[in-house]
Fold this protein.
Amino acid sequence: MEMRRTAGLMTIMKQQGEDTTPKLYYILSALTYLLAMVCSNMALQFVSYPTQVIGKAGKPIPVIILGVLLGNKVYPPRKYVFVFLVVTGVILFMYKDGPPKKPMDAAGQTGFGELLLLLSLTMDGITSAVQERMKGEHNTKSGHMMLNMNYWSVIFSTVAIVASGEVFQFVRFLQRYPATLWQIVTVSIAGAFGQYFIFFTIAEFGPLPCSIITTTRKLFTVLGSIIIFGHSLSTRQWLGTCIVFTGLFLDAVYGKTDRSSKKEVAK
């Protein structure tokens, strides 16, 4: 998957000019990105899927905090309020009523899954902080960022699957279910297109707007399926939807006001 993306980005990278971003930034962002994904997937062994989804819905919070602490980013107080509204609304919308069902192998592991989710969110925050430095210090373009992060991700992933022996399990899986190869290719192509827009958003607008978009898309996906298939929303879900749209609306107004005031100062 990663090699396919890397090969397709060479042309885009050449069109975006010379890249002055230090390799260390790409290595750190690729490593923390992979660790966030690994911790998130491992957490599913100890917590339910809804718990994992709700936990990851809080991604903008570590992004904004570590963006300030490590990424040299400064946000006005109202930005924190808007992000909190969006995250709270998504959590309310995605929350499942009733006690969560933990996986069978989670017995005696109370708190470990939550710790993995916390580590995953921390890695997400560090990734965004490094990307914030790329954008602020070197004006890193989307093509360069996507190419180099996937390049180092290929290296780290290859070492991991060879060292763990999972590469042989993967080959045996394909031999047993050869039809899944085309599904993997399809997911890879769709993921490459999705990554292009994600990195474009990061390079042009910053990691925080991107994390808000990827968080709220979960709400819009579920909301769209509800509308299409005629399902009904609970009072809590309607409340969560209203809170999300309120946060997004206020953030949009805030952003326009902020940009217009900057233009006036420039004049």
Observations:
- The radius of gyration is 20 Å.
- Confidence is low (pLDDT under 50) at residues 259-267.
- The first helix runs from residue 2 to 8.
- DSSP finds twelve helices and no strands in the chain.
